[in-house]
Amino acid sequence: MLDPRTVRTEPDAVRASQTARGADPTVVDRYLDLDRSRREAIAAFEELRARQKQLGRRIGPAQGALKRADAADRDQLQREVDALLSEAAGLADEVKAAEARSAALQSELDEVALDLDNLVDPAAPVGGEEDFTVITEVGEARDFAAEGFEPRDHLELGSRLRAIDVERGAKVSGSRFFYLTGDGALLELALLNLAMSLATRNGLTPVIPPALVNPAAMAATGFLGQAAENVYHLQDDDMYLVGTAEVPLAGYHADEILPAEDLPLHYVGFSPCFRREAGSHGKDTRGIIRVHQFDKVEMFTYCDPADAVAEHDRLLSWEREFLDQLEIPYRVIDVATGDLGASAARKFDIEAWIPTQGRYREVTSTSNCTTFQSRRLNTRFRAADGTVAPVATLNGTLVAMPRVIVALLENHQDANGDVRVPAALQPFLGGREWLRAPQ
RNA sequence: GGAGGCGUCGCAUAGUCUGGUCUAGUGCGCCCGCCUGCUAAGCGGGUUGAGGUCUCAAAGCCUCUCGAGGGUUCAAAUCCCUCCGCCUCCGCCA
Known about the structure:
Layout: H1 4-9, H2 11-21, H3 27-68, H4 71-113, E1 133-138, H5 144-147, H6 154-160, E2 164-165, H7 166-172, E3 179-180, H8 183-201, E4 205-207, E5 212-213, H9 215-220, E6 232-234, E7 239-241, H10 246-251, E8 257-259, E9 265-274, E10 293-303, H11 308-326, E11 330-334, E12 346-354, E13 359-368, H12 372-377, E14 380-382, E15 388-390, E16 392-400, H13 401-411, E17 419-420, E18 434-435
Parallel strand pairs: 4-9, 8-14
Antiparallel strand pairs: 1-11, 2-3, 5-7, 6-7, 9-10, 10-16, 11-12, 12-13, 13-16, 14-15, 17-18
Helix pairs in contact: 3-4, 6-13
The chain binds one RNA strand through α3 and α4.
């Protein structure tokens, strides 16, 4: 949700931002029209309501006087009370009508406001999905030809190691489900522990949140908008399965005013993630690149909006630190305006090199949502001078398990199909240097 | 799943039975000022959030806000309904 004052005072900037995203800029004008009508309706209602209150305050005393009155005064007072009551009754109807009109315009405005995406950061590259800019490339893709063997893909490696089982996943749950077994299961736990130790060393607070949330939490994070078709909904209980820990971490401080001295707040949540993957039939059908359920470690920051850009860089640096430790080649891209998602002003993706695909694939993503998300969540902070204002929120992936496992297996395989364990991960795998197929 | 109790402006509490004098009182905490070698005490004032209006801005004025949403009424913290949360007891259960 944008600040209404921004739309009012800088409509051109909002239009330009919408255009950069490939979204509709004329929403701004519909918004401004409705906003004007709404404010007129509020003024009309409040004026009537004030009159009603003034009138109402005279009724009690008048009735009291009537009760105590002598017979002589009674008729006169009775007439006065009756007059007051009938005037108040008429006014009550007007108030009710004016209030209804004002409420109707408010909800219309709220509806239109949903079509206004966050203002893009001027630093973000303008364009569509393909117009990202590459910020940096780290590490080098192995030359398997020079090493004299053809790399196996993650599913082949995972099956050989008895680490990944998609057949039984499909048997029990359907396509896009999988089991991690043996070293596969241990590998996820090792990645989790490495991530958590890195996060706590950097001062983040670990959180294990609920993965099932109510409609308010889901809506406030914006996932019931265009992403709604990818969200699992439990009809009987009207609950949603989260697609990321961002949802419960964002909802954590909803409707709160945080003391400025507590900021920035850094959380790191570990949760299962559920995604329906509607509309991606036929895409990434092999292996565990795209699945309906996986586990993820997600960072979430609440901060003073003035610090948001610096905090965004911190999240990115923590993501990079993690991949550096896994010795996986990757590149960092600055996502283009057309591919940001409604909440983000700017987004950096880290893409790991996947040898058997011969290209980079997204493994983590970090977004600066500025105050867009917090306005809907109603999460604010009290500055030193006592003023209250929306906080900025940012999120970033530390580990999305399946994709990191894919990158790890493929990049660290040897000619036999065994997989080298990077040094940083060894302490979390009982000191083992290799994952080898069981006999 | 069943029965009962509770939810008030940071915290604690009054008000709800019996609707209007609640423009929500009081204590504590916090902030400002006075007083004072300093500190404490004492004295005075302030202290929810949102929206609207006015304004360069502020002050001011108005409306809403007593867990949430509806209803009754000229008028709701107060009466009625639904929902949410917490507590106690019973049942079931990892």
